[in-house]
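Review this today:
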Amino acid sequence: MTQPSTPKAAKPKPAKDAPREPKAAERILTTAGELFYREGTRAIGVDEIVSRAGATKPTLYRAFPSKDHLIAAYLEGQGEGFWTYFEAAAGKHPGDPKAQILAFFDELGERATRPGYRGCALTNAAVEYPAADHPGRLVSVEHKQGLRERLRQMTKAMDARKPKKLADALLLLIEGVYVSSQLFGPDGPAAAAKGAAQALIEAHTRPEPE
């Protein structure tokens, strides 16, 4: 922007509490994330992203070497968001892994009924990109492996007889919510996930008959 020609004119200072203008790369990532989640990553092109973000292609490619790298950055953010609400649910029940998992299913069930819910972006991306070396798929696989390991730790902590099998069964339920909620909406089978999780946990932790 051109500065005033009067030499005495001072450049105004922004108020301390004024919101910071997002940088172009941040705007691009935010805009891309909204479009990717709603429409799918394959359906959205770079032209639409930069147009909606009020940016240019050179700006995008300075921040992200390719669209695939932009997708990976978007998925990294989605993964961080997942762990934020997973750990928030678990934090309501310190030292009680069974209650922690059920609290997460409560949260998941609530999220799955929200308008515009499109399941898990990482799961969606894994379906969109079957190639093992795609940057987005690599992020998705790493995240899902982390979730699988976290569930194994929790099922082991609750003294499940077969913690790995229980963890995998719970993971299947979680992934089922992500997919079925998109097919059936708020009244679909996703609402039964918490009850199924509770039944699985009880079956794997109840004392064996003598």
The radius of gyration is 22 Å. Residues 22-64 form a domain with the Arc Repressor Mutant, subunit A fold (CATH 1.10.10.60). The CA atoms of residues 16 and 22 lie 16 Å apart. The chain has two domains: 22-64, 72-205.
